[in-house]
Give the backbone structure.
Amino acid sequence: MLSAALNVAIELRIAEQVAAGRKSVSALAAGSGRALNEDALYRVLRALASVGIFSEVRPREFASTPPAEFLRGDVPWTLRELVRWLSEPLHFRVHAELMHSVETGRPSVEKVTGSPVFEFFPKNRELSELFNDAMTNFSRAIVPAVLEAYDFSGVNMLVDIAGGHGAVLTSILKQYPTMRGLLFDLDHVVAGAAPAIRAEGLDGRVQTASGDFFKAVPGGGDLYLMKHIIHDWDDERATLILKNIRRVLEGQPNGRVVLLESVLQPGNEPDLGKLIDLEMLTFPGGLERTADQFTALFTRAGFTLSRIVPTHSPVSVIEARPS
């Protein structure tokens, strides 16, 4: 219910409307540009205020709160597109079929949509754009913590495998001005990346290429980066991707692969990775992994896990080098 309420607030841009000061429900309804039932809107906002998203400062009058600030699309710290994706109605339909995944081990998205998720997206442009925007949003949120924790010095060519619209790659290149980059993804994704690369002023330092990472990846890099890619796939297919990277790193004395992924911890403490793991179960069919599972995965692909560097974000930097 709270996810549905969040989605309503995001679509109506309530966080942007109250950013400048408190507003009445009638003003918020008018500012949405839609025909709304004011009482129903009030009840949604009252529920969100009860968990700290917005604050009812006077009867039927709402103000912003620190958590609500992350729902704004007009600030650099925004998480709006990520929350919008996670609260999109498709998620309700897919997670409602969790029992299908428990019974079969298969992603429930296939039961809901009739196809694997990465085949479904290209046929549904609006959802595909929503997903890509969410991944870009998440990348921009975590990359400062990654740059703080891990030193990319000495890398000549960084290849971002399945790098989406290039948010991680361009952020790293801006911090390391002598580094060059190559963005590799599917055709329709790379096409959407060009304006973002141009906007960052990095046309001259970033190449793009498209293809199928299960068949091959571009050569020429000395560091191959993947952010939340390996977790999309089971061990067999993840190993295939890593073996293709291992092949092009042959003869690179400083060659390495770096994953930006959750590393699951033992015990019962709250762990966002364990919830992301259910997203992997129901959508692409992958999984989040422990340190031991990463070690075994790299070994099968011809790598040795060299270190895991925690960051002040939900992901760690997981580095491996050819064995």
Observations:
- The chain has a mean pLDDT of 96.
- The CA atoms of residues 108 and 282 lie 5 Å apart.
- The first helix runs from residue 2 to 11.
